Amino acid sequence: MGQDDEMMRKGPWTEHEDFQLVFYVHMFGDRRWDFIANVSGLKRTGKSCRLRWVNYLNPDLKRGKLTPNEERLVLELHSKFGNRWSKIARRLPGRTDNEIKNYWRTHTRKEAQEKKRQSSGSPSPSLSHCSSCSSVCNSHPIMGSMPLIDKKERNFYDTGGVEMLTVMKGKNSSKKKNSEKATSKVSNFKEGQEGHYSMEEIWKDLDLLDEDTITPVFDPYTEIAPSLTWDNSLITSWTMGSQEEFSIDSFPLTSQQFSSGLTD
DNA sequence: AACATTCCCAACCGCCTCCAA
DNA sequence: CTTGGAGGCGGTTGGGAATGT
Question: Domain HTH myb-type, which positions (predicted)?
């Protein structure tokens, strides 16, 4: 890649970056990540953009804890496929390989701890719930019907995605457990101060955009430029002499600019 | 209340595969 | 056929939040 690695941003994504990425993925599709990285003006690698999209921004994602059913399925599939996380994830709609990997890691760690405790002879109070089950757990008759009642489990996440809306509110930045925290954390963003534009709102607007204003997903290699019908004044110049030069100088747009463009 | 430990998960890294040139 | 770039994948890490002492 011809990208200047020193200029590349790393670390947690800001709300504003999310916003930009969502916009460009919506426009160009979720395949040409290097292109999107270049075009969007995000100082991120294509890989980083892809990861952010796949693991976090994709609207098809189910948020929240895995349901007992999903947990059982993960265990089952893992015994079948091993650490082929993406393969397992494909069978769990709305779940990412990363999520499953993380779950598995936690699961096996808990399991190891329980074993350790057991072998050291001290009975564990948490043995009553299924975290003590190992990979054997997929044959545990109680597993499918009984939700995990780990005292650490976050009650409001336990629906395994039903609370989507609330959780989406909390998705503004990394690591939100609830919308309250989201707000406090988001307020820390210096560059995203133009307003708290939640992902939920972004998607709402993008849906509108889809319906009546924009032709989404064009092939950047065959098309000259997308035909945007929303406030074109926002786009001051498109250059496309080569892939690298292609840029929208006026980005990043503020949320207000963006949404006002949408509602015109 | 303060500190320590554990949990959780987003994001990075490096390797692998695929495919166009 | 070879090669280089892009995307995909699995492993790992870092840090914030939750929980325990």
Answer: 5-57, 58-112
CA of A46 vs C1' of C1, distance in Å? 29
Q: DSSP secondary-structure letter at A41?
A: -
Residue A51 pLDDT exceeds 80: yes
- For CA atoms A27, A28, A30, A35, the dihedral sign is negative
Q: Are the CB atoms for A48 and A54 separated by under 8 Å?
A: no
- Give the number of other Cβ atoms within 10 Å of residue A84's Cβ: 13
CA distance A234 to A70: 44
Q: What is the pLDDT of residues A89-115, one digit of tens each?
A: 888 888 988 889 888 888 887 777 777
Distance from C-alpha of A199 to C-alpha of A15, rounded to nearest angstrom:
9
CA contacts within 13 A on the Cβ side of A184: 6
What is the per-residue pLDDT for A119? 67
| Count of Cβ atoms closer than 10 Å to residue A10 Cβ | 9
Cβ of residue A11 lies below 7 Å from strand B: yes
Q: Is A28 helix (H, G, I), strand (E, B) or coil?
A: helix
% chain A with pLDDT above 90: 1
Distance in Å from C14's C1' to A12's CA comes to 11
Structure confidence by residue, pLDDT tens digits, A193-248: 333 445 555 566 555 555 444 444 444 433 333 333 333 333 333 333 333 344 44
Nucleic strand B under 7 Å from the C-beta of A65:
yes
Distance A28 CA to B19 C1' (A): 20
